[in-house]
Specification:
Strand content: under 5%
Mean pLDDT: 78
Helix content: 55-70%
Shape: elongated
Structural class: mainly alpha
Largest sheet: none
Amino acid sequence: VTNPRPTRAEATDIANAVLDGVDGILLGAETLRGEYPTDCVATIAQICRVAEGVFDYFTHYDSLMVAAQETEAAMRAAVNKVMPSGANGVQTLNHAGSGGKSVAFAAAGTSPATDDLASEEP
């Protein structure tokens, strides 16, 4: 990379990633091999800071909670359907891994949210 500044598309991609709620930015080989690696990282950090300044944390949190509650409700329904049959377990297949945790909590009759709150010290 010979340009010291990102293109508009690159800057927009970084800002949109932050606004989508990513936890981190993975830099490509161009950053390491380019002529301006430290400038590149500084520019990316600046773009991230500006994007984080307009990020709507409350809406993002609410959407995550809705998704978690929907997953928990589905897993609880599955456990309630299977448990009376005498099954020894419930197998879950998913991408994120939260389904298995939700099944375990549902089988125990608890909730991940309330258990996390109960474990916090006052």
